[in-house]
Design goal:
mainly alpha; 22 helices; 466 residues
Length: 466
């Protein structure tokens, strides 16, 4: 059990530090600090999983855990006369988090801006007006998530589709819960067969482990991963229709143009990474600048909106000009801080020296196939980004088929738990109280069935790559 726990927890972020860790790095795997770090992390994650019952926001325990882990690491290094080694590692860890946090912040700002402009409310009215029931909407949002995520990335897609589900579902918690689970599974599956559909696929592509077009060999296994659990969850979705809306909802001025700017932002991020080899977050932040300038335009021309309202009902009313800092302030900060706690905590565990131990146990002793399937299981417990960092840092000698397998499992394995992927964590914040860890956990066996089926299909259709 202890060996499994170590293998489970140690394939985590700080692995990216391997290339820059000073030669005097200490092996703390047998030190009391290592054991202490593992215990603190496990306790923190138990509190995260119990959020539904304790009502303790998930960011709090992992932030404390991060401080305790890095504090004890630094204390040991100071005692050994190496005061700056832990500092260098921690700064690199913070850089990793900053890229993720800023990427998320821009995506959330656009989602909040579209919500403020009544984009999702107008879409909800249109969907309800077309007579779609909850079951049809369940499939529509799932299929859209599957096909949008290869282009827009799974996290952004999940946030977008969840906003639609919340607008359509209203107070029907059962529909919202099942639709959110379906979105997470579909977005993660869709992102796994595209080089820029997920951060993990980007990493594999950037390391030249798999070339651009070979990723699309995972399309059929990814589709199976989405369709199997969706088909089984279909029967649990309420066979009802959303309440009809009594009046039409008109999208506020600028709503459509914000959608276009959001697509332009995603395109900028993809182009920055694919053609200029820059971090995607730089493209996202550039896209935030698009929105800022457009917000300035809307603010300076707010009199047109007031005049339009005056012409419609005889009085100007309380028309509020668009302010970019309102949607920024409404970002899900608990989720952003949770990511900090996780990245920093597991980065500290990785810096303690557990990566080499995990590499020997998983890839040398167990073999590539078993290891790569386990990677998917690990990514359900810990975000797939640090897990893939670990695999790439280990750099095991594998065939293209095995690299495709680990790309698939790392991408879709995180769907088995809500905390296993950035999409799931983000939706827990966005659909707070309706989509929770335990509501997702109830459907884990069904999602695991899809996970197993997708692996079998991969071995069948991509046999030539092994």
């Amino acid at each position: 059990m202890q060996r499994f726990l170590i293998s489970l927890l140690l394939m985590l972020p700080g692995v990216a530090l391997a290339s820059m860790v000073p030669p005097e790095r200490l092996d703390l795997t047998g030190h009391w600090v290592g054991v202490f770090g593992l215990v603190v992390f496990v306790v923190a994650y138990i509190l995260v999983m119990a959020e539904e019952f304790t009502l303790l926001r998930k960011s709090k325990p992992v932030i404390i855990a991060a401080g305790l882990i890095w504090g004890t690491i630094a204390w040991v290094y100071v005692q050994h006369g190496l005061p700056h080694a832990a500092e260098v590692a921690a700064r690199h860890n913070l850089l990793e988090y900053a890229e993720l946090m800023l990427f998320l912040l821009v995506a959330m700002t656009y989602i909040n801006s579209m919500e403020e402009r009544l984009v999702f409310e107008a879409l909800r009215v249109k969907l309800v007006g077309n007579g779609f029931g909850f079951r049809s909407l369940f499939w529509i949002t799932g299929i859209l998530s599957f096909f949008i995520s290869p282009i827009a990335d799974n996290l952004t897609t999940a946030l977008l589709m969840c906003a639609v589900v919340l607008a359509v579902g209203g107070d029907n918690s059962r529909f919202v819960t099942l639709a959110c689970i379906n979105i997470v599974v579909a977005a993660n599956a869709g992102g796994s067969f595209s080089p820029f559909g997920d951060i993990t696929t980007l990493m594999v592509w950037q390391k030249d482990m798999v070339d651009f077009w070979t990723f699309f060999a995972l399309f059929l296994p990814a589709a199976v991963n989405f369709l199997v659990p969706a088909a089984l969850m279909h029967f649990a979705v309420p066979n009802e229709k959303p309440l009809a809306v009594g009046e039409a909802v008109t999208m506020m001025r600028g709503g459509r143009r914000i959608i276009i700017l959001f697509l332009a932002t995603i395109a900028t991020a993809v182009c920055f990474h694919n053609f200029l080899y820059l971090p995607p977050v730089l493209g996202m932040l550039t896209g935030l600048g698009y929105l800022q300038f457009f917000g300035y335009y809307l603010k300076k021309t707010a009199h047109r909106e007031k005049q339009s309202a005056s012409d419609a009902d005889g009085e100007a009313g309380d028309v509020v000009a668009f302010d970019i800092f309102r949607p920024i302030a409404r970002a899900e900060w608990d989720t952003l801080l949770f990511f900090y706690g996780v990245v920093a905590s597991v980065g500290g565990l990785g810096f303690m020296g557990y990566l080499a131990m995990a590499s020997d146990v998983i890839y040398v002793q167990w073999g590539a196939t078993t290891a790569n399937i386990l990677v998917g299981v690990l990514s359900a417990i810990v975000d797939n980004i640090p897990v893939m960092f670990a695999v790439l840092s280990m750099n095991p000698d594998m065939s293209i088929g095995q690299w495709l397998l680990v790309t698939l499992t790392a991408g879709v394995g995180g769907s088995m738990l809500s905390i296993g992927s950035a999409a799931g964590v983000a939706l827990m914040g966005q659909a707070r109280g309706k989509y929770t860890f335990f509501s997702h956990l109830r459907w884990t066996p069904v999602i695991a069935l899809g996970y197993t089926a997708s692996i079998m299909v991969h071995f069948w259709v991509n046999d030539a790559y092994f």
